[in-house]
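>> received
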Amino acid sequence: MAAAASVAEYHSRDFDWDELREEVESDPCLAYHLTPSAPVSCSSSSSPSLSPCEADAWRSFHRRHSSGKFFKERRYLLEEFPELARCDGFAKVLEVGCGNGSTVLPILRAKQSMIIYACDCSPEVLERAKEIISSANGISSEERFHPFLLDFSVNNFPKWLFCSSCQNALVRNQSSSSEDAAEKLMTRDELDFRTNTQCCIGGVDFVTLIFTLSAVPLQNMPFVLAQCFSALKPGCLLLFRDYGLYDMTMLRFPVKQKVGDREYMRLDGTLSYFFSLDIVRDLFVSAGFIELELEYCCLDTGIRIELWT
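>> returned
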């Protein structure tokens, strides 16, 4: 009964986003949010030199919040993205920007067959995530949670996720119409053999990008999405949720913290970008994704999107 009540209470349309937009855009006190402004950088040179400074800011942030109490477990995740709950059998998930594991925990709890690979730019927060997850009740994490250190805003994903040789061969095989067994390219069985011999893990079934992309400098977002695209098996899903345009968090920023169009810098040096649906669509489609669902979630004006490649 408790689980049923939890599901019944989940909702995402407390108000109409267009009404919020009209309210914000008609308020002269909020006019500075509507005007573009030139982005700042960490040094006198132009972007993308912003990223090292940004990564340092996030490392400091996670050190200050090392207790793990700042981020609550995202229990809504399986309701927002039911594909995770409906997935049958063995599946691999790549969590990009895992923080202290608030996104990882509900997935591990819900699906015993899920294996999660998770990256973050902070070694301290990765250690904290391992501690939190290993101490969580009902989760056997030793073989199911694999964190690794990576500043994904500027660095490629490791080749052991999905090497280009396996990826290209699998894509060619799926698009091949030849019935001649002698001319067939790599099959999934052959891919499994190669991955079992440590070539790579053969790509992932899901990439989760939850309140992470907004923390990346805007000019680095295409790179991040291209890396996410490269890690996914063909036909699999990227699940995205982040800050939406005119979110209350955005409206609370003073003008002095506005560093770009819809981009703000907190006092601790971390960035936050606020997405419109058009911007999300352009970014993801340009990276090669196909849009399945795109909408504002008007509980907290976060954007929800599901994409597949």
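>> Residues 50-64 form the longest helix (15 residues).
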